[in-house]
Design a protein that fits this description.
This protein is an alpha/beta fold and about 290 residues long. It is built from 9 helices and 10 strands.
Length: about 290
């Protein structure tokens, strides 16, 4: 090792040790734009031990801090021992493709963010996961198509796969995908959505068929002991290539919300209280079995 290598190694270890437990805010330049994120580090973080990373993407008009409040992933991170990052979309929105009007490609940004965090934190590169709500869930599906070499598991809440992405979505590896959708969601329609302002979205059954087919899943189990079957219809597809799995949770009469999360809407809180499904815990349990 040269003196220069040794200095670089020392700088790297110092940087990694500087991340304090609790709330951290960070920024990086990507595609000519200053990007920001909110990061939560559990008290158990030890810079000498690799730690899993969960990326959580907000919906339209949200931000990293707001989706952290809804999902309560910070509490779970402390209990289970993982780092969670909540990136901020530009103008509180996500863009799936850059164009001449100066829009960024947020898939490329997520790739840059992961690289950026790996330089500061001792992240277990086999345990990087992505989840999101609404437009953030649509971004999560796009990441499954385009970034499967970096991310080991995906969870989409109140989202679907854009129709225009489907034909170009040919990841070379199997994809572990968990989806949670309300059957009465008026924003991301269960039967599919051909409205042009959002871009057409596959129906939930077509989305599930797409991932099942991609993973070559051979068997299904439509019963889960964890949830009341009259409130949450669960289908788990196994026997898939590369030990991947596809889970589909359909919240009967559920709307556009994060099950088990906090909300300012009293009706959502009432519905949540009777549901018995905690999306964040379910997602983490799913992630833990895929690396």
């Amino acid at each position: 090792m040269t003196a220069c290598d040794s200095i670089q190694a020392e700088q790297k270890s110092i940087t990694k040790a500087k991340i304090l437990s609790g709330d951290n805010y960070g920024e990086l330049y990507d595609q000519g734009k200053l990007r920001t994120y909110y990061l939560y580090t559990p008290k158990s973080y030890n810079p000498n031990r690799p730690i899993p990373l969960v990326l959580v993407f907000h919906g339209d008009d949200g931000n990293g801090r707001s989706i952290s409040n809804v999902t309560r992933f910070n509490e779970l991170a402390d209990k289970k021992g993982f780092i969670v990052v909540y990136p901020d979309g530009i103008d509180q929105k996500w863009s799936l493709r850059g164009n001449a009007q100066g829009r960024v490609d947020d898939v490329s940004f997520v790739n840059a963010l992961i690289n950026h965090l790996q330089q500061q934190i001792n992240i277990d590169s086999h345990k990087i996961y992505a989840t999101g709500f609404s437009r953030g869930a649509i971004l999560t599906q796009a990441l499954a198509c385009k970034l499967p070499n970096k991310i080991s598991g995906f969870a989409s809440v109140a989202g679907s796969l854009p129709v225009r992405l489907k034909s170009n979505c040919q990841p070379r590896t199997s994809i572990s995908m968990l989806t949670i959708n309300g059957t009465n969601d008026h924003d991301v329609l269960y039967e599919g959505d051909d409205r042009t302002q959002r871009g057409a979205l596959l129906s939930i059954s077509d989305m599930i068929d797409f991932w099942r087919s991609h993973d070559q899943c051979t068997s299904s189990n439509n019963k889960s002991p964890d949830f009341s079957q009259d409130k949450v219809k669960t289908a788990i597809y196994t026997g898939c290539s590369g030990n991947s799995e596809v889970w589909q949770l359909a919240v009967v009469n559920g709307g556009h919300f994060w099950p088990g999360g906090s909300s300012t809407d009293k009706n959502v809180n009432k519905f949540n209280a009777n549901l018995g499904l905690n999306a964040s815990e379910t997602i983490w349990n799913f992630f833990q079995s895929h690396s």
